[in-house]
Amino acid sequence: MKKIFSILFISLSFFSVKADEGMWLVQLIGEKTYADMVKKGLKLTKEQLYSANKNSIKDAIVLFGGGCTAEIVSKEGLVFTNHHCGYGSIAAASSVAHNYLQDGFWAKSKQEEIASPGLSVQFLLNIEDVSDKVNEKIKDVPANELAAKLPGILATMSAKAAEGSGYEIRIGSFFKGNQFLQFTYQRYTDVRLVGAPPESIGKFGGDTDNWEWPRHTGDFSIFRVYMSKDGKPADYSADNIPYVPKHFLPVSIKGVKDGDFSMIYGYPGGTNRYETSYGVKLKIDIENPFTVSLRDARLKLMMTEMLKDPANKIQLASYYAQVANYWKFFDGETKQLIKYNVIEQKQKDEAAFEAWAKGKPEYDNLFANIKSAYDNWRPYAKHRVYITEGIMGSPLLAFAAGLRTLDAALKESPVNQEKINKSIVALKAAHGRFLNDENVTSDRNILAIVTKLFYTDIDASQRPQNFYTALKNTHGSLEKDETYENFAKQVFENTMILNKDKWAAFISKPDTATLHKDLAYSTAISFLNNFNDNYGKYFTDFNGATYALNKKYLKGVLEMKKGKAIYPDANQTMRISYGNVKSYSPKDGVNYNYVCTLNGVMEKYIPGDYEFDAPAKLIELIKNKDYGQYVDKATNDIVVTFITTDDITGGNSGSPVINAKGELIGLAFDGNYEALSHKIAFDKNLNRTICVDVRFVLFIIEKLGGAKNIIDELVIMKN
Ligand code: ARG
User: Fold this and answer.
1) Which CATH number fits domain 575-717: 2.40.10, 2.40.128, 1.10.3470, 1.20.120?
2) 637 is catalytic
3) Which pTM was predicted?
4) Which of 55, 185, 197, 464 is deepest in the core (most CB within 10 A)?
């Protein structure tokens, strides 16, 4: 039964782009796609969606903090995004005395808003196809060297194009290097915290509910963008004034029905929908499971400290959430890739491609060559995961690894003082940030466990012999946990990185002898040098070969599908996805509703629990059914969340969910567990985007936060 189910309901093949799949480039919404949007219910013109020279919805959408999306919702630069996107800033503004993570925060006037150093938003100004220019620059680069050289080439071209403009330019690679588009952005760096619900709303359900539907998380936070008095981007200053947007989204409190049109604008970070069967296999066999097990070990050690003391919690919460988010994702992704036979699906796609490519010599042996690139790399893939997710999973060692730039600068002859000074300035700033977030106890335990796991799990022939020999000589048997614990203790007691005076002395007059003697540094480079010197070339070869081969594959796919609507993989450029509000059946005999309500919060509520506690004031509001104009008529309750079929991924977090008339109905914040293979294969029946209902957002602001000032700033549509 199960088997039949998955065959009947799963269509993962990219040869048949089906309903709701697709993250469309905003400027390239073709007639076909637009017509399909209208058919699904859209009431806007194409120009209202995106216009190169007139104001359109795209002007209300920003790239938030470099990894999320946010939308402008008032004429005074107010933005909505997810709680988990504002999390770092909320944590940074918090202290044990003013614990905004725990208690929430509501600015009752602009004076009360809190500056968020380091946070910025970027507006997209312009998009240009620069394929010819890029192709001209890379025409003499051997195909296998492109992977290594392209990022530098694009960065140089971008910097040159932006020179003197005050804008930022980034050139993106599309269809695996078969097209290049140049994006111009304007960055605003004075962004202030305006409001956030308590974590027991903004992160209700924690990691247990993360990536799951049904869901009861109020995942939103509120910021405001400021500009200088003369209307330009400017760093924080008390004299700055609220940003005046070209467009902002009105907010609809009419509510959603099953089947309603919805679309989502945002900055999806990355997908790999054209991944080959070989790539999926490496992911399933090695990359995902070991990433998950190493994260699991680190997370447990962090949680132990977070539970001990609220100060530890504030310090570690943001990093913990980041690691935990993809720990669960990768685990679920592996399960779904296996369950839906994605390797087989990809093999079928590859066979169909080979049939099409027959008689076209440029594609001869394409998949045989891809296979051999994977075969050559496979023996070292686990080692690399143990470096990136293991050894570098110790924040101390990751910081220490950053000292390599200084080390290299110090070794240069003749002396390049400018380079050394530049490196010192960068390290001083990084050191301050590092110390702020550094929880010594959890990090020390992490260092002990990852050095042990590296020893037990990685092929003996690949170990850094010098490190383990020295470890044995100084601390005894490599089989005992104690050895690693004592070693970690020694590192933390002796490293200059954690010793104020030693660090100050070193950084004011750095020298290689002191640096090389530092135990944190020498440990980090033992592992990194061992990998780079002995296995780095396999990794470079693997990347070079697969880049060239995948590019060729995609070139063929584009040719084969000429005339069909086709979207490129996500790469943190602005996209539109569209679909419907829609319930689903996750498995035989089970139907999931398209909304979750406050009633469900009460069902999940566990007083005092780490994940399922709820604020007393919310319980009170529920008891009194004090819902005001935000009540949902159909359920006579507050709708907390709803789901849509829109195609999104990480980076879309905070994205506006917009109705047929261009009004905000919710904020996208998650994907569902049953479709966690979505980065590689979109599932047309099971894929859902989880959104916080904007009526819940407004209800919390007004009734729980008492911040009527924020509500008054919005344009609220009741019909
Ligand atoms: N899964 C969400 C996303 O990737 C993030 C949710 C954060 N919450 C958490 N419990 N870690 O957008």
Assistant:
1) 2.40.10
2) no
3) 0.94
4) 197
